[in-house]
Amino acid sequence: MNARTAILAVACAALVPAAPAAAQDSIYNPSVLHETRLVLDPGDWSALRQNFRSNQYYAANLSVDGEVVQQVGIRSRGKGSRSGEKPGLKVDMNHYVSGQEFHGRKSLILDNLTQDATFLREPLSFAVFEAMGIAAPRVAHTRLTVNDEYWGLYTLVEDITKPFLEARLGDKEGNLFSYEWTFAYDFSYRGAAPNRYVPVPFEPETHVTSVDPAGLIAFIRTVNEAPDANFVAAVSPFLDVTRFLTHVAVENAIAENDGIVGSEGMNNFFLYQYAGQNRFVFIPWDKDTTFVSADFPLLHRVETNVLVRRLLADPAQMAAYRDAVKRAAAVAVNPAFLLPRIEAMYTLIRNAVLEDRKKPCCNEQFELGVDGLKALIVAREQVIAAQSARAVRIVRH
Amino acid sequence: MRLRPRHPGIVLTVLAFASSGTAGAQEGWQFGPSLELRRADSGFKVRVNSYAQGDVRSRRNFTDGDDEEPGLNGTETLLRRARIGLEGEWRRLSFEAMVDPSDEGEKLKDLYAELRVAKALRIRGGHFKVPVSPEFLTSIAKTDFIERSMLATHLAPARDWGVMASGAPFKRFDYMVGIFEGDGRTQRARADRTVAARLEYGALKSLDLGASFSQGDVTADADGEGDVGPVPRGLPGIGASQFRFYDPHFVDGRRRRLGADARWTRGPVSVRGEWLRATEERRGQGPVFEDLPGETGQGWVASATWLVTGDKKSRTIRPARPLSKGGPGALEIGARYESLRFDDDGDGAGFAGVGNRARNIRAAADRTFTGGLSWWPESWVRLVGNVVLEHFEDALLAPEPGRQGQYATILGRIQVQLP
Questions:
Q1: Partners of residue B359 in chain A, C-beta under 8 Å
Q2: Could you report the predicted ipTM of this complex, rounded to two decimals?
Q3: DSSP letter at B323?
Q4: Domains along chain B?
C-alpha cells in the first residue's frame, strides 16, 4: 500500500459506519486454535456420514476447549459443502435438553471448510465485512476430534440467532429468514401467495410456526413494481440502501461468486425484518467461495438481481456503490489489512491442516492456495483501483 | 392432550341440575332415580351415566421459559372431561356407550355390548379398555387421585376395538382375555393386533391379587405424513406435570407388557400396589437400519387412602352423612409414590444417548410423590386437591437441566356426576 492509499484508508476508516462491536467470547477467539471434541455412538457417526444429505439429528456430548455440554443434537449441514467424509455440522444445544445453552447460545456451526483449500477465506471475508461496518458472524478455527479420532480442521461459526441479532442489530423480536438456495432467484415478485416465498427460499428462523411474510412480500413487490422515477424513495422504508449497497460492494470487492449477485442467483445471506417494522437488513453468511480471482469485476452480475440492478440504475446510488467499493479496498481489501491476518492464521492452523486427512485437498494445494491467496490480495487492490477509475455502464433490461 | 373449556360452567351447571334427580312414571315404563328407565316385565333398563370434571393445574417451580421456548410455570384451568353415556341391560345382554363432546381429539370412549353366557363366561365386543392395568380399568371419576399413575397412563394399553371373554369360573377367581385391533386406538404409539389377558384372585376377603399380560406388534412409521418425517411409535415418559422426560423412540416389532398388582381394602382404608413392565423391539430402527437393543419401560406405584370420616372404601363413595343431611360428607386423604423409568435391554456399553434411534438409550426416570385430599359432600359431587412432587433421575433431562427436583404441581378438581 502506498502513502496515498494509506491516507485514503485512514480517512475511509473514519467514514465507515461502525456496527455494534462483536462481544468477546472465548470460543470465537480467532487468535486461538480451539479444540472441539464430539463423543457419540460410533454407529450414529457412521450413519450421519452415510446420510450426510439428511438433516437427521444425533445425540452427542460436545466439548470446546475442555468445556463440556452433554446431549447436544448434531446434524449434517451445508449446501455444496455437504460431505460424508468430512461433514459440516450444526450443533443444537437444546434439541434434546430443553433450555440448554452453551456460552449463551442454543446452537453453533462447525464449518468443514471443504470448499476452500486455504481454510482462510471465510474468516478473512467476515473480517472485511466487519471492517466495513456490516455485522458478520464471529468465526474461529478449531481442531475437531470425533470419538478420539482427529477429524480435521473446522471453523466454529457463530450461528445467526437471537443473541446475534440482539447484540449486533439491537433487535431480536422480528422475523429472521435464512435464504435457502433451491433455484436461481433474483428477488423477482412471484405473486402475493406467501408460499411462493416462505419457507422456500426464505425459511423462517424465528416465529417459525407463526411468521407473517406480508412485510417480506410487500418489500419484494415494491422492489419490482415501484416506478423508476422514485424507486429509491420507495425502497428506502424497507432497506437502508447505503448499507445494502455496501454489502454488495464488499461481496464484489472480495470477489464473492456465490453471494447476493451470485453466479446461480442470490445465496448465502440471512434477511432480518425488524420487529414491528417493514425494515429489512441483509446479513452475510457462508463466505468460503470468496477471492476467486484478482480481476473479478466490481460490477459482476449486478444486472442479474432486480434489487441491485434497479438501485444502481440511479446515478446517485451507483456513485455510492462505487464509493463503497473504494472504501472496501482502502479499509480492508488490501494487503495491509489482510496479509497480517493470513500470516497469523496460517501459523495457527498449518499443522492442523497438514494433519487433516479428511480434507478434500492435499497439503500441497493448501500451501499453494495460501500463497495464491496472498498474491491475489496484492493484485486485487490494484484491480479495484483500476476498475474504479473506469466509467461503468449498467446493462439494463 | 390438553382440553380447554369453551363453557365449562355451563356443562357443570347442567350436570348439577340433572343430578338433583328427576322421577316420573309412564305406563309400562318407570323412571327411577338417576335418570334410569326400566320396564320390569321385559327386564330392560337403561340409565344415563354422565359426569364432568373441571381441573386447575398450577406449576410454580419449573421453568419460566423465554420467547423461543415456552416455560412450564403457570396456572391453567380446563374442562378436563364431560362424559355422557348410556348403560343398560336386557336379559343376558348389557351395553354401554360413552362419549366426551369436550374432547378435542377422540370423542368416542366406550361403545360395547356384552352377553352373559354364564357366570364363567361373558363375551364383550366393541370399543373398550384393554384389560391390563387395574387402575386404567377404573373409571377416572373413581380413581384415588386426579391423575392416574404414570404407568397406567403411559405404559398400559388404552381403549381399542376388540372382543373379550371374561368371567369367574372359580370362587375368588376372575379372568379377562381378549383380542384387540390395537392397544390404544387414538394413540400414536398404537400397536397392531394385540392380545391381552388379566387374572384376578381374591386371596383373602380384603386382598385382591392380579396379573396381566399383553402382546402386539408395532409397525414403524416408514414415511411419515406430509412434510413430517417418520414419527417414532415408542411409548413416552410423561409426568403428572405433563413434562415429557422421555421422548418416544423408534420401535418396530413386538411390544409386550407384563404386570402384577395387589389391592387391600378394609373398612375406610385401602392400600394398593401395581407394577408394569413394557418391552418393545427395535428391529431395523438403527440409523442405518440395523437392529437395536429392545426398549424397556418399567413402572411401579404404591398408594394408600383413608376415609377419615369412617365411610367404607369402595369404588363408588357414598357418604354415610352427606352435607344435605347435616353431615360432613366423606373425606379421604391419600398418598402415592410411583416411578416410571425407560432404558434399553442392551449391555450398556458405549455412548448413552437421548436420540430416538440411540443404540444405548440414556436412561430416564421420574419418581413422583402425590398427596391427595378428596371430599364428597354428596355422592354426586367430589372436590379433589393433589400436590405432586416430581424428582427426575437424570438431572440433564429435568425441566430445568441440572436440577433433579423437587418440582411441584398443584392440581385441583371439581367433579359432578349423575347420582
A1: 41, 43-44
A2: 0.75
A3: G
A4: 8-15+37-417 (2.40.160.10)
